[in-house]
Amino acid sequence: MNTKQIQKFVLSYLDSTGCHLIEKSPNRVVVKLSPAADRALTNRPYYWSFIDRTDTEPETLTFGWSFESPSMSDRSNASPVSYVMTEAGRIVQEDVYYGSRRLHQLFEAVRQDGRNVTLFEEPPRGKIDPLGSQPYTAWLGVNFKVAYECDMKREELYGWGISLATGVIDDKFMERLKDRKLSPRLPSNVHLLKNGISLRKGMSQLELTLERKLKNTDFTWAVEAEKRRQDELDRIRQYYKPMLEGMGHDNQKEMKETLTARFKQREAEIDWQYRPRISVSVINCGIFHLPGIH
After folding, report:
1. How many other CB atoms are there within 10 angstroms of residue 65's CB atom?
2. What is the number of other CB atoms lying within 10 angstroms of the CB of residue 217?
3. Do 285 and 200 lie in a common domain?
4. 3-state class of 137 per DSSP?
5. Which of 192, 199, 212, 280 has the least C-beta neighbours within 10 A?
6. Are 53 and 7 part of one and the same domain?
7. Could you give the 3-state DSSP secondary structure of residue 284?
8. What is the SS3 assignment for 138?
């Protein structure tokens, strides 16, 4: 990421979390964090637990972030944080560049907050009837990660959506969203259609559809992995069993128990490494309100 991309990302985060921009220049911003951003970025759990217990008005921190990328020598010599006292209070000053601790923290905050979103498509400017109201349908969009695992691993991503009004499933839903301008704010002159199915049922329908798809895939890889698993188990059995059978004396009992435990451990390790399996996880999901009746 270059300096402009980093600044654009940071400003987008500040806007989406409702922060107050005090000063903005081509390479620097001074911002008073919103409560949501302060909770995510300042690592003050005791302060926020006090605010939650006492229902007190919070005093969030103010930051001055510079986007001019410092040289490697400056990064090693300079302190990452400095403070400036102004009439409005203390400003925490930091350099935000690719690889900096603060930018990494912003990435992590976006990743955590972005796991579940509610967004609305913004209608084209100038094409809205000021006296009318456009219907919007709610879609549940989910990014699934499917991992095919054995002694090798392959992953596939599925970005599917289901209309909460009709139950229609779109297996290219996330691709359709790429060219749409989305906002967390409800546009004007818009009304939301009533959902015909619940979120729980919508998620169940997506999971069932994905399960049916996976059952119809080619499982040659799993058959080959199972063969390799059996070959590896046969190999270690040929190694350990003759030794165990030869330990029949009473004075070898402890040694035999130790060797048996090691044999069982190796069997378990090979079983974990080679046994074919499919795991499905949700990367992120959201409710997307799109124009039209679907």
Report:
1. 23
2. 13
3. yes
4. strand
5. 212
6. yes
7. strand
8. strand
